[in-house]
Amino acid sequence: MSSGEAEMEMSIRTDRMELFKGADSFSNQPHNHRHFYQFTVPVQGICHFTMDNRPFRLHEGDGLVQHPGAEHYLHLDDASSVIIIKFRQDALQLDNGPNTRPEFAERQWMNPLDLSRRFQHWTTELMFTEEKEPLAAQETEIQVLHYLKEALYGSSMFDGKLENRGNHFVRDVHLDRVLEYMHECYSSAVSIEELSAIAGQSRYHFMRMFHAYTGVTPYQYLLRLRIEDARIQLRNSSASIAEISCSLGFSSASQFHRIFLKVVGLTPGEFRRSGR
């Protein structure tokens, strides 16, 4: 994407999507994305958008979907900004089979303040995710895809809803296998692909069902296991905090310190000295 001196832009990519924000007279050249959908939403000011030779004047919250292969380009007025989410055409297939391709309504509307807040949260999570923690980045990616699934309309593939089980707890042998695996391997790097494969579910369906089953995300569950082990080691061993951090798969002692403090309310050193 092209930019001039007065233009500002930021971009974060994952395996299946890209989060982009352009501002202050940002513009780009005609292009298309062969395997990606693009969702374009001005969150401030005016975005002049051209898609397949058709001009659009988009105001705040006026979303526009570009299907794979659609040629498009844009330029912003002064003091304007736009959020763009690109996602692979197979990213929202979910449980509908490998040949299912959604056809979204071209025009969408989003609350620009809500989208801006979510965008800031997503990008912050991705920027500060440790490289050795793929599960955390994948969970953020799935948060974005879940938002798109709920927010975009025009595709019948998203008409179904998660079955309401009321207050009845149903034992799931597939998720039990996932939990057993996590209890055995929590000190190693774990990915959504591994866990969803054990459950025999798509990534998206697995994330929904795991949260419904445990009340937390897979990454939060993994951290709980690590922190519980850390508490035992801090109480019962003479290993240094750095050694404990390394043995439990944390990417650094500082990450261990930060997460332990958040979960327990004490630093690892304070916890050890307290004799709890």
Automatic annotation (TrEMBL):
Coiled coil: none annotated. Keywords: Activator, DNA-binding, Transcription, Transcription regulation. The keyword rRNA-binding does not apply. Residues 176-274 form the HTH araC/xylS-type domain. Pfam families: AraC_binding, HTH_18. It comes from the Bacteria. InterPro entries: AraC-bd, AraC_XylS_family_regulators, Homeodomain-like_sf, HTH-like, HTH_AraC, HTH_AraC-typ_CS, RmlC-like_jellyroll, Tscrpt_reg_AraC-type_HTH. One of its GO terms (molecular function) is DNA-binding transcription factor activity. This is Helix-turn-helix domain-containing protein. It comes from Paenibacillus dendrobii.
